[in-house]
Backbone:
């Protein structure tokens, strides 16, 4: 078998392993998934009317705020689920299974590839679930055709891939699973400091740069524009640059750490 064939075979084996782990131990994924769902329900049903009046400048209309907040929470869902990746990688590194894999005739990169693909699939499934909750409570996509939906799906997958590689690196440098979860907490905190819940224009001047110059805000604004037919502007290019930059950084960080760490 060629080197490429061996890599594909071993990567698919590691992918099945990680998906089986996720199926047998779903509590971590479900706990992380509950955060964006609870925030969605909280902000829509408790703050929705007030926030809609502030955003739209008119009377209270909860549906306007649902349309505004759902795209941000879809990306927040990706950040939440990738924390499980950091914990899973850290467990593999500290519990001895990686040392066992190193003694076997398997493709070295297949371990990380299995984690990344498995995490991206779980993130996409989680996004679908949160999106279904959003639709159930009134979210409707306006002005989005087949091309916009395809672009939105591509953005979600690319964003999930980028954050997953960063989460893998965090898991590799963490001494244990608890530290891995703590190190990956910015992946949940950054969406809270972005334009998920309020527009950039409504933020205080001293806080706006914190929300504007980070990866979540341009991705949220791009996804919001694709799904709602609003102006995207330069956010599309910024989101793409953030995704590619984080993916490349996470890939080289993770592979260099994995290849050099004998744990």
Residues:
């Amino acid at each position: 078998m060629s080197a490429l064939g061996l890599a594909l075979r071993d990567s698919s084996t590691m992918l099945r392993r990680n998906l089986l782990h996720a199926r047998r131990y779903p509590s971590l994924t479900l706990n992380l998934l509950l955060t964006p769902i609870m925030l969605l329900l909280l902000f829509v049903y408790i703050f929705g009317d007030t926030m809609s009046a502030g955003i739209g400048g008119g009377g209270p209309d909860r549906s306007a705020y649902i349309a505004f907040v759902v795209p941000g929470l879809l990306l927040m869902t990706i950040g939440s689920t990738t924390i499980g990746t950091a914990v899973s990688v850290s467990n593999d590194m500290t519990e001895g299974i990686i040392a066992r894999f190193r003694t076997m005739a398997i493709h070295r990169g297949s371990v990380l590839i299995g984690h990344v693909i498995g995490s991206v699939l779980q993130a996409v499934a989680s996004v679908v679930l949160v999106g279904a909750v959003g639709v159930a409570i009134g979210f409707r996509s306006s002005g989005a055709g087949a091309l916009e939906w395809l672009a939105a799906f591509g953005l979600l997958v690319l964003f999930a891939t980028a954050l997953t590689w960063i989460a893998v690196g965090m898991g590799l440098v963490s001494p244990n699973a608890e530290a891995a979860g703590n190190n990956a907490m910015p992946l949940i905190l950054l969406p809270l400091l972005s334009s998920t819940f309020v527009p950039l224009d409504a933020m205080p001047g001293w806080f706006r740069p914190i929300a504007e110059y980070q990866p979540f805000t341009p991705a949220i604004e791009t996804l919001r524009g694709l799904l709602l037919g609003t102006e995207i502007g330069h956010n599309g290019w910024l989101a793409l640059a953030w995704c590619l930059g984080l993916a490349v950084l996470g890939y080289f960080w993770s592979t260099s750490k994995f290849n050099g760490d004998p744990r």
Observations:
- The chain is about 75% helix and 0% strand.
- The mean pLDDT is 84.
- The radius of gyration is 19 Å.
